Amino acid sequence: MGTERLTPGLLLRLGVLFTAVCVCIHVYLETGWRAAPAPLALGRPTLSGQNRGQQSRTKQVSTEPQQQQQDRSVKRRISYVRTLRKDRKKDEDKEDPSCCPPAHLHRKAPRWHIDLEPWASESHSLEDEAKRFLNYITTPQVSCASPVRGEATQDGTKGPWAACLDPKYSLTHRIHSKHCRVYSFGLGVDDRSLEHSLAGAGCEVHCFDPSLKQPHLQQDEMWLHRLSVDWRDPNPAIVAQRQYANTKKLATILNDFGHRQVDVLKADMESAEWKILENLVLEGVLESVGQLLLELHLHWAGFEVGGDDPSVVRYWFSLLKELERANFHLFHVHSDPTKPHLFLHKNVLNASSAYTLSWVNTGWKS
Questions:
Q1: For the chain, which terminus, N or C, has the lower number of CB atoms within 10 Å?
Q2: Please, are residues 228 and 268 in contact by the beta-carbon 8 Å criterion?
Q3: Residue 280 pLDDT grade (very low, low, confident, very high; cuts 50, 70, 90)
Q4: What is the pLDDT of residues 33-84, one digit of tens each?
Q5: Which helix (H) or strand (E) holds 163?
Q6: Distance CA 97, CA 330 (A)
Q7: Do residues 342 and 355 lie in contact, with contact meaning Cβ atoms separated by under 8 Å?
Q8: How far apart are CA 281 and CA 45, in angstroms?
Q9: Distance CA 120, CA 136 (A)
């Protein structure tokens, strides 16, 4: 009697156990079949990155005919893009390198920071750093046989700005070939006698001043633009609220104007020159510039330049050494005697608070 009551329960337990074993075997076989490589994939070149992930997803749903067609179309599109890139590369290789410079000469892989030079001395003192820096900016590195200067000041001295028309550099030849272009950045009313001289010689001159009332204006053989250079582009949200952005990076301005090169870049940015120069170095825009004319302000560190005084001067010196490594060599120095003798709010070595310097890019071929 007890045996008959246990038999149905025993059979039920055996049935459940058998069903569980069958499910495990089915899952094992199904998983092994999906993990096995498809026979069509053998012998194909290995894909990398996104294409490899896309191919694995295609294999998992290969049983659906419609999805197979979509995957084939994706593969065809990938092959088409690769073919275009190869053809474009072949066309670029066929171009005559002597014809013209690259289309985007200033598009270079950006760097994140400049290379700081070693300290001037083990003491890291301000006097040692200032002595090295001042000696560097007051010692011309190359000579210029034919400088062109701005108009003389009221006391009869020559103007602070100078460009070089020496035939061994490129500017003279660019003027004769009608390819000379000048960018001048300033704030408000500034001395534009040099710009007038270069415009009279046949250069295309663009003066940038954010205080102008009109966005673009042609005046006295020069173009005037309500714009200025900065070390960063404006916030897109701010640009959307305005019709014109007042400040942009030099690389952005070159792209917007469709210019590949600037023969003379003149800038008086009232203590923003250090961060702007750093941006030109880090983004490789200096390759697009033939001569650089810059006014340096030394009475304080400058916008967004931090650190103690010796570190600031070391940073200044390192930036100018980056210029030298980019083939820019100093040919003109001018210190304004009317400026106060302040160097980071101190009287250090009787240095002036403002210097106007001119460099020529000796890497530019004439």
A1: N
A2: no
A3: very high
A4: 554 444 333 333 443 444 444 444 444 434 444 545 444 443 333 332 333 3
A5: strand 162-164
A6: 29
A7: no
A8: 41
A9: 12
